[in-house]
Structure formats: structure tokens, C-alpha cells
């Protein structure tokens, strides 16, 4: 089953690396959308709806483009410095968060920016238009009209949801956000092919000798771009605030997708071996000896066989049973006994073993790239957020993330640490709660700080569709309510662990001593309020630096600005890249988070009321520098 899933996954992800952008996007999404539009929508009605939608955004865009000084940055132009706000009680913060009429995030923004946001949000509410977007782009490319489409995307969706085309362009946005107590996670959002041709290939690097040489060429290019992202985050962080700057990375940027699929398959196979042979969460050494023949390649020499017997013999002297964490460590691809278990004959193929020798060498090169990224970030005091991705990559990504957490989040002899690496947990998966608790326990055993970002998940539609297509159980919770419960329980669990540590140690929590540091990355108002209330109940201060909040740039600003005003640690996920490179990110956000985009009705209503008040002249601007009731510096249109 696992081999068939890996084969299917290869054919699912390969289109993401094709050269033609339009083909990439169109083939990575279902053609059923185009068929639905063709069969279920009357042409005249479709034309009228498209025309009305584009007209609305075009009017807004035309107005703001002719306004002097428009930069496209939708951050309050004269937001009050965070030092101007006094400390608030949790009850006051909760009241602010519950106040859906608050204009804290919009009262200081120029009118033209509000019009842009209104137009973009309106387009996002048309679900059929969101689904048709990749096909429209593909059609525009086929008739040589891609550039006008990209121009429109850049001056609408790109301006609303992205920080710029390079990290330097993001600095101004980061500066403005910091004045409202909001920090940034800088993200190189490159998901399409980099269009490497023969002129970019350096044959003297030795990679051309390997199976994945072109993908690894691409990975080396992305490595350099990611390092630049980290340096920019470090420079901006040092300049703007004392808060730790962050950069987001995707493990898929540093390895061929086929290799990650093979690695994922190997990790899953070992996990299956354990759970198929365990009793009450333990596997006996004797059972392990017999079970190994099911997954790992047989010993290739008498010496290798003797080494395996010696390792198992030492285990028997220490214990008769192993739990999963001990089992996982024993067969780690980064452990001292790797070659004893994993090395095989060079002529062995993918059909013979979980990982061939050449794949192990490619794995080592991938780990070296990630190590360079994490090492640079550690030296510059930048946090690394390792993004979650599709389930057929996720076990491999988790394997990489936990290894570098163990290396770079290590406690020193004095009980201090500098947390660098955060892994992401998608709580819409059925296995997420168990995985979260397992990794916390592993961090305790290995003496490193557990660092995590909790999200609901961004691939729900595609994951469920793929499970149906290939006939395996969906990894996603069956209902939205189950996902909410899992997410909130995960937050409560981590806060409970922090509370217990604080009670036992008798010391206040701090970012450099706490065993757990995590981010609540959610647009859900109820989850944010629950976290604030639980922090109060558990006596965890918002200024301790152990609990962060996160939202996407351009979304749920009301929550972000309220948290920033009240001295909670809040970050905006700030993607950047050329328009062509960022389009897949924009499409995925629109498709996979359509429920979020569709729920901004209240935010749109507030924006519209603000615009009407300004146009009607009903708002009298106070003297420059005075603070409005919503907590921001007032600014006339």
C-alpha cells in the first residue's frame, strides 16, 4: 500500500515543477472545476458576474492608483507606537477581542487602501471565481495575455496578501507593523519552478552524476535565496524591536520531491512495523529481531550481521522491551548505527529496499542544506518556522524538523537555551494530538526545548480528494467541530505543560528557560480568546515570550492589532516573491482557506462604514498624534 501511495504522490506533485507557469497551476488542480463552470453556469450570467466583479475591483484600483503617495502597503500609515499603550488586564483584552465593531485595524489606514481591500475581499467571496482562477490564468497564457493578468494580480491580491517581490521590499511593511506591536515571519514563497535551463547548470559541482541532479540544482539556488531571507529578517529584527524575528522555510525547497516521498514511505513503514508488533505500547527485543526482516534490507556481509547482533544484544542487557521513542531513536537515519541498519548493496533498487545507497547520499545533501539554514538562523538569533505540507511529505518533514530541534534548541548546563527551530502541527489531522504529545515527551528525554506552531491546516480539500481518489482513509478530521476541538485541546495541553513546569520549578517562565515555546497560528476569534483566557488561568504572562500568536498578512487585522496593542506577542506571516512565483501561494490560500476569506464579511462591513463616514465628512480628525477610541492614531482620508 505504501509503495502505491508514494507512486501516486509522485504524479500528484510533479506538475508543481514543470516549466510553464500556467500549465503548472492548471494541472495541479482539478479539471472538474472547469467542467462545472462549463456545464452548470449560463454563459451570459457567467460573463455578467465576472464583469461585475472585475469592475468593482477596477474602480477601486483605478481610484487608488491615481492617489499621490500610494505605496500599496496596507498598514496604518501613522499607527501609534506600541509604547504609547498601557498594559491591559486579560478581561479587557478579551472584551477588545470580542468587540466586533472595533476599527482598530482600519481607522488609521488611507482610504485608497481600504478600497483595495474591499475589492479584493469581494472577489474572494466568489467561490466559483476562486476555483476558476488557475484555468483563467492558463487560458491567458495560451493566448499571450498573461502579462496583463499578472499586472492585475500584482495590484490587487498581491498587494493585499504579500509583502513585496524581494525581502528588501518587505522591510518598510515590517517597520510599520512593528509600530503597532506586530512582528513578522518572513517567507520566501516560491512554489513554482525556477525555470532553470542549461545556462544555469554548473556541471562541475558533481550533482549531474546523481539521479536528482536538476532538482538538487534548484535546491541549491533556493538555499542561497533562503539565507538572504534570514539575513534580512535578522537585520530588520535588530533594527525594529527586541522581539525575535522569524523566517519560514519549506523542507520541499531543499530536496527532490521524489526523495521526500521515499523518505516519508520509509518513516511510515518503520512506524507500521512497530505498531503491528507492539503490545500495550511496547515491543520486545525478541519480536523486534523477527520483525526487522519485514522492512529493513538483510545484512550485506558477515560483519554487518555481527554488528546488528551486537546492538540487539546490548539492548537485551538493558531492557526486554522498547517503547516507540526508543525504537525510533534506534533506527534513526541520523544515529550512530545508521549504516548498521540502512546500508545496502549499490545495485539494490527502489523495489528492493526502503532507501537505496544513492538515496541516502541525496538525503545527506538535503540535511546539509537544512543544517546550513538552521545554523545561520541560530547564529543570527532568527527563529525558523518549518512549514507543514501535504500528508505524503509530512512524516519526512517531521523527521527533519525534530532532528534540528534537538540540535539547535538544546538546553545548556545552566538550563538555558536559544530556541531556533519550530515545527508545524496541522491539527486538522487525526494523528496530530498523539504526535504533539509524543514529540513533547521526546524533547524531555533528549533535553531540548520543544518549539511548535499550531495551525488548523491548509490542505483539507486536496487531502480529502486524494484519499477518495486512491481509496485510503482520509487523514483529516471528519468535521469542522472535530478540528476545532483538536486545535483548542492542543493549545490547552501545551499551556498545561508550561503551567506544570512553572509550578515545579518555582520560577517564572521565560523564552530562554521554558521547556516549550509555541505559536497559536489561527484566524479563529474563539480560539484566540480561549488562549488568552487559558494563559490567565494558568498564570502565563503575555510578556514571557513563550506563547505567540500568528495570522496571515492581509487577514484578520482586527485580532492582530488588538493583540499587539495589549502587549501580546503577535506575528504576521509575510510572504514575498515575484508575482509569478507567489501565484500558487495566493491560489492555495484562496482555495484552501475559502472559509476564512468568506468570513471577513464583518471586516468588510467595518471598512465600508469607515469609507462612507470619511466620504460623508462625518468624522472630524483630531489633532495629529492624538489617539482615537479604537487605540490608533487618527488620520484623515
Characterize the structure shown.
This protein has 25 helices and 10 strands. By secondary structure, the chain is α/β, with parallel strands linked by helices. The chain has a domain of 284 residues. The protein has an 8-stranded parallel barrel with strand order 1-2-5-6-7-8-9-10, surrounded by 7 helices. Strands 3-4 form a two-stranded antiparallel ribbon. The longest helix is centred in the middle third of the chain and has 28 residues.
Strand content: 5-15%
Total strand count, please? 10
Count of DSSP-assigned helices: 25
The rough form would be described as globular
Mean pLDDT: 81
Mind summarizing the main beta sheet?
8 strands, parallel, barrel
- Show unreliable segments: 1-56, 63-73, 76-80, 192-198, 621-637
Would you tell me the structural class of the helices and strands?
alpha/beta
Instruction: Tell me roughly what share of residues is in helical segments.
Output: 55-70%
Q: What keyword list fits this structure?
A:
637 residues; alpha/beta; two-stranded antiparallel sheet; 25 helices; disordered N terminus
Amino acid at each position: 500500500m505504501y509503495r502505491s501511495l508514494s507512486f501516486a504522490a509522485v504524479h500528484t506533485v510533479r506538475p508543481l515543477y514543470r516549466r510553464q507557469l500556467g500549465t503548472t497551476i492548471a494541472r495541479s488542480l482539478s479539471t472538474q472545476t472547469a467542467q462545472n463552470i462549463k456545464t452548470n453556469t449560463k454563459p451570459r450570467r457567467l460573463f455578467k458576474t465576472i464583469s461585475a466583479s472585475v469592475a468593482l475591483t477596477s474602480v477601486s484600483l483605478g481610484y487608488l492608483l491615481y492617489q499621490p503617495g500610494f505605496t500599496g502597503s496596507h498598514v496604518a500609515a501613522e499607527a501609534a507606537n506600541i509604547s504609547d499603550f498601557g498594559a491591559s488586564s486579560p478581561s479587557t483584552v478579551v472584551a477588545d477581542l470580542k468587540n466586533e465593531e472595533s476599527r482598530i485595524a482600519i481607522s488609521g489606514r488611507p482610504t485608497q487602501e481600504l478600497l483595495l481591500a474591499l475589492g479584493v475581499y469581494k472577489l474572494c467571496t466568489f467561490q466559483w471565481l476562486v476555483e476558476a482562477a488557475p484555468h483563467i490564468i492558463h487560458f491567458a497564457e495560451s493566448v499571450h495575455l498573461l502579462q496583463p493578468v499578472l499586472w492585475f494580480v500584482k495590484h490587487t491580491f498581491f498587494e493585499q496578501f504579500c509583502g513585496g517581490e524581494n525581502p528588501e521590499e518587505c522591510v518598510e511593511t515590517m517597520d510599520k507593523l512593528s509600530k503597532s506591536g506586530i512582528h513578522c515571519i518572513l517567507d520566501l514563497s516560491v512554489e513554482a519552478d525556477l525555470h532553470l535551463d542549461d545556462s544555469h547548470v554548473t556541471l562541475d559541482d558533481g550533482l549531474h552524476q546523481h539521479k536528482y541532479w536538476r532538482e538538487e540544482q534548484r535546491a541549491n539556488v533556493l538555499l542561497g535565496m533562503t539565507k538572504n531571507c534570514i539575513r534580512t529578517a535578522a537585520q530588520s529584527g535588530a533594527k525594529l524591536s527586541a522581539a525575535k524575528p522569524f523566517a519560514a522555510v519549506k523542507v520541499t525547497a531543499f530536496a527532490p520531491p521524489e526523495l521526500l516521498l521515499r523518505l516519508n514511505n520509509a518513516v511510515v513503514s518503520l512506524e507500521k512495523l512497530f505498531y503491528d508488533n507492539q503490545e500495550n505500547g511496547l515491543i520486545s527485543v525478541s519480536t523486534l529481531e523477527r520483525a526487522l526482516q519485514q522492512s529493513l534490507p538483510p545484512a550485506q556481509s558477515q560483519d554487518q550481521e555481527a554488528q546488528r547482533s551486537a546492538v540487539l544484544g546490548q539492548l537485551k542487557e538493558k531492557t526486554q522491551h522498547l517503547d516507540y521513542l526508543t525504537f525510533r531513536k534506534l533506527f534513526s537515519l541520523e544515529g550512530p548505527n545508521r549504516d548498521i541498519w540502512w546500508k545496502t548493496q549499490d545495485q539494490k533498487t527502489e523495489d528492493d529496499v526502503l532507501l537505496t545507497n544513492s538515496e541516502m547520499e541525496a538525503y545527506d545533501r538535503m540535511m546539509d542544506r537544512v543544517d546550513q539554514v538552521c545554523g545561520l538562523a541560530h547564529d543570527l538569533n532568527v527563529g525558523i518556522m518549518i512549514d507543514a505540507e501535504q500528508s505524503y511529505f509530512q512524516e519526512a518533514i517531521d523527521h527533519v524538523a525534530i532532528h534540528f530541534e534537538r540540535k539547535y534548541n538544546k538546553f545548556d548546563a545552566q538550563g538555558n537555551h536559544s530556541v531556533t527551530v519550530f515545527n508545524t502541527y496541522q491539527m486538522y489531522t487525526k494523528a496530530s494530538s498523539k504526535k504533539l504529545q509524543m514529540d513533547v515527551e521526546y524533547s524531555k528525554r533528549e533535553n531540548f526545548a520543544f518549539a511548535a506552531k499550531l495551525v488548523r491546516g491548509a490542505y483539507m480539500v486536496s487531502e480529502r480528494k486524494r484519499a477518495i481518489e486512491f481509496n485510503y482513509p482520509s487523514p483529516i478530521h471528519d468535521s469542522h467541530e472535530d478540528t476545532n476541538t483538536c486545535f483548542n485541546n492542543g493549545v490547552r495541553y501545551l499551556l498545561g505543560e508550561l503551567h506544570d513546569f512553572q509550578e515545579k520549578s518555582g520560577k517564572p517562565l521565560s523564552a530562554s528557560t521554558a521547556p516549550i515555546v509555541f505559536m497559536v497560528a489561527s484566524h479563529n476569534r474563539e480560539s484566540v480568546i480561549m488562549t488568552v483566557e487559558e494563559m490567565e488561568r494558568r498564570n502565563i504572562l503575555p510578556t514571557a515570550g513563550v506563547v505567540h500568536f500568528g495570522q496571515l498578512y492581509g487577514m484578520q487585522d482586527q485580532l492582530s492589532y488588538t493583540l499587539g496593542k495589549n502587549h501580546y506577542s503577535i506575528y504576521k506571516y509575510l510572504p514575498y516573491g515575484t508575482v509569478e512565483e507567489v501565484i500558487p501561494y495566493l491560489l492555495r490560500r484562496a482555495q484552501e482557506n475559502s472559509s476564512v476569506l468568506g468570513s471577513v464579511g464583518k471586516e468588510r462591513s467595518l471598512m465600508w462604514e469607515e469609507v462612507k463616514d470619511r466620504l460623508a465628512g462625518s468624522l472630524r480628525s483630531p489633532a495629529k498624534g492624538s489617539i482615537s477610541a479604537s487605540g490608533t492614531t487618527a488620520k484623515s482620508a
